[in-house]
Each structure stands twice: as C-alpha cells, then as structure tokens.
Amino acid sequence: MPTINELADEFSRAFVLLHRQDGSPYFVLRDGSPEWMRDAAMKAHGDFMPDDTRYEFILDALHIIANGANLDEAEDSLEADIYNADLLRWVSSNLVRMGYVDEAMEEIGGEFDSLASALQLGQLAERREVLYAIWKELEAMADEGEEEEDAL
C-alpha cells in the first residue's frame, strides 16, 4: 500500500511543463494520468476554474509532501514569493485572490509594514488551502489502498 508521500511523488511526476505560443510556461497533468489525480487537482482548485497558479501551487505542495513531510512540516515549508512583481502578478491573475489578502489581514490584525507583506500573507493562505486539499485527497487515496489491502 502506498503512503501519502509515495502518492505525492507519483502525482508530482505526472505533471509536465508546456509553453504557450507567447513562451509562457504552464503545468498540466500528462495525458493518461489516473482519474484520481485529475479529480484531486480539480478539488484543489476549489472555486477557481483551471488556473495556472493553482497548478503551480499543487505541484509545490506535492514536492513538499513527496520529500517526506507530514502535514505540519509541509505547512511550515510553504513560502510566499519574495519579489514584488511576482506577488503583484499573483494577486492580479484573479481578483478573488484579493480575498485571501483581506482575510489574512483580518486574521493577523494590526499594521503591516508593506503591501508586499500583506500580499505574502494572502498568498500563503492560498498555498495553505491548496496544501490541505491535496493532503486530504492523498490521505483518502492511501486509506482506500489500505482498505483494499485489508480486504485481500
């Protein structure tokens, strides 16, 4: 029976990097990937339509988990972008992302020393949401494999 970490490794290897006509990179699941991977990716998108940033965050979460992290360690390993241009690109890619910033600011309260700090907290909130969704799906797959093994 595969562990959550092994499933994360298998899942992460199912992604391929492609480029659009303008040269911009994006990740997709390889054709023929198992249905559970497609389902997990869609669940990790939440209310978003298929989204390049979400796919990137999914892959980041999978790499962290595949390297042996448990959920707490995985959460501690999450990092927000550090460059202003990347943070602005993230928040402007979908206006729903402003909600992550607003929620993070409410949760933390107080003053922020910069717009970048507020954007980083918002991005970390989205990364955390993706991590939890992926963990939940991997956990369900691992449990399903365990049940099948017990039935034999």
Describe the protein in words:
This protein has 152 residues and is mainly alpha-helical. It has one domain (4-151). The protein has 7 helices and 2 strands, in the order αββαααααα. The chain has a two-stranded antiparallel ribbon with strand order 1-2. Helix 5 (84-92) crosses helix 7 and helix 6 crosses helix 7 (115-151).
Strand element count: 2
- Structurally, the number of domains stands at 1
How would you state the average pLDDT, rounded?
92
Strand order of the largest sheet: 1-2
* Terminal CA distance: 12 Å
Globular, elongated, flat, extended or rod-shaped: what is the shape? globular
* Rg (C-alpha, Å): 17 Å
Derived structural class: mainly alpha
Portion in strands: 5-15%
Note the total helix count: 7
Low-pLDDT stretches are: none
Reading the helices and strands in chain order gives HEEHHHHHH
Q: Summarize the amount of helix as a percent range.
A: 55-70%
Q: Major sheet, described briefly?
A: 2 strands, antiparallel
Task: Walk me through the topology.
Elements: H1 4-13, E1 15-19, E2 25-29, H2 35-45, H3 52-66, H4 71-77, H5 84-92, H6 97-108, H7 115-151
Antiparallel strand pairs: 1-2
Outline of the structure:
The chain is mainly alpha-helical.
Considering the chains and any ligands shown, give keywords for the structure:
152 residues; two-stranded antiparallel ribbon; mainly alpha; 7% strand
